[in-house]
Amino acid sequence: GFLRAPGKHHQGGSLDLHTGTGLAALEAAGLKDGFDKLARYEGAVFTVQDAQGGNTFTTSPGEGDEERPEIDRGQLRDLLLGSLPPSRVRWGKTLSAVEPGASGGWVLRFADGSAETGFRLVVGADGASSAVRPVITSAKPTYSGKTYIEGRFSHSNPQYAAALEMVGPGNSAAIGAGRVLVVQQMSDRTYRMYAGIEEPDTSRTRAGGDLDFTTEVEKPRAVLLSLFADWAPHLRAFIEHAEGPWRVWPLYSFTADAFEGSAWTRAPGVTLLGDAAHVALPNGEGVNAAMLDALRLFECLTAELGKQGEAFDAEADAAAIEHAVAAYETEMLKRASEHVDDGIMMNDMMYQADGAERMVAMFKQFAEGAGQS
Fold first, then answer.
1. Which stretches make up the FAD-binding domain (predicted)?
2. Which element (helix H / strand E) includes 118?
3. Cis peptide preceding 245, ω within 30 of 0
4. pTM, whole model, 2 decimals?
5. Hey, where are the domains in the chain?
6. CATH number of 142-253
């Protein structure tokens, strides 16, 4: 695989892996035991409240048949990369474009001016700004009108005790009209905060905007606090005391029509998975959807290639890979459309005045369906 230089990409906070998707992929890769050494099963607890601290509801770990253990993104990435021989990863390679080769196949062109060829299959797992995607579709994710601003709480932060009491080992979301405040615990027991705001464009968070945290903190903090002026003091306190490093995270998404009709074409020898294939708004399923993509692609490839004889036949090999990828994409695209729609629905709910009430009702329905009281 070709990856950018290690440490150059923000790894984000904590995420939860689910039975049948992310956890199933780890099982198939023989990495479940390694995951369990890092996973926080007690972190599968989620607290919801409204902007005034009402409509509070907390889920319990282990509700229903599905496990949802937490792990830091960086830990999961290291676990996956650590399972590969070092020779299988080429660092410092930022992909710029994928082009047809003069004699067939595909040429990968990198930002450092180098190029690579000779691949049986190019799998674009290069995220929301995928350089592989244009080979297959002209669809591009668009700004959703929502942005997260991330801060942190160390153990010595004056707000740490409040985070421990409100959030515990898991996650919390406070929901109000046009605003949301998410707080989550990390593996080192520090906390991350994500203050979500609705903005029509990203001008305020870009360089020079009044929510630009790159060179100044207190002025944009005051502006951010003004956007939460009518929220309860115990929730505003998280913004008041949050530490850096700060990160602004504009939320982008596809729409479901990106997967319909001729919007998606087959390009023999190329496919996509994860955010490269289906950028969605946060809905708790992003990494799980990506890992399920990888698992399903692996299963389709091994099923088709397993039919080949011992002697390698390039034409038969290419045909088998094409059959496998076509089968994978048929199933993946249906899931992708549902995943994108679910993200849009979830985020629409999370920015409504009655969003907390609606989310609590949803959690209670899930609990009742699982036989929980």
1. 267-309
2. none
3. yes
4. 0.93
5. 142-253
6. 3.30.9.30
